[in-house]
Amino acid sequence: MTEFALVLPIALLLLAVAATGGQMLVTAIDLTQAARSGAVAAAADYGAGDTIVQQTNDARTAAYDEQGGAGSITCKPSAKVPVGCVSVADTAGTDYPGQNLAVVTVWRTLDLYVPLFPDITVSGTATAAAGS
C-alpha cells in the first residue's frame, strides 16, 4: 500500500507529460501541413501583384481549410504570434538566388488534455516558391 502511494503520483505525472508531448507532436504535424497549404496558396499569385495582405488572406484561408474550416486554428496573439495565427513573409531566396519565396508560419495555442503547463503555443512553418 505504501509503495503504491509513493509510485502513483510519479506514474501519473509521467503519463501526463507523455500525453502532453504527444498532443504537441500531433499538433505540430497538423500545423506543418496547414502551413504547406498556406505557402502554396500565398505563392501561387505572387507574380500577379498580390500584396502581402492578400497573400496572408490566401494563406490563412488555405490553412484553415486544411484544418477543417474558418476559425479552426486558434491562438493567443503576442509579440511573436499575429492576430489570425498565420503570417506570411516574402523573401528573396538565399539558397536559390533570384527565387522569390513565400514563408508561412501557423500557430495554435493548445487546450491540453492534462493542464500541466499554461498556454503552450505550437507552430508549423513551410516555404513555397513563387508561382508554384
Rg: 19 Å
Anisotropy-based shape:
elongated
Give the distance, in angstroms, between the N- and C-terminal Cα atoms.
Answer: 64 Å
Unreliable sequence segments: none
Order of H and E elements: HHEEE
**Estimated share of beta-strand residues:** 15-25%
Q: What structural class do the secondary elements suggest? A: alpha+beta
Strand element count: 3
Query: Largest sheet at a glance?
Result: 3 strands, antiparallel
Helix content: 40-55%
How many DSSP helices? Answer: 2
As laid out across the biggest beta sheet, the strand order is 1-2-3
Rounded mean pLDDT is 84
Question: Could you explain how this protein is built, in words?
Answer:
With 132 residues, the protein is α+β, with helices and mostly antiparallel strands. The protein has helices at residues 2-44, 52-67; strands at 86-92, 100-109, 121-129. It has a three-stranded antiparallel β-sheet, covered by helices on one side. A hairpin with a 7-residue loop joins strand 1 and strand 2 (100-109).
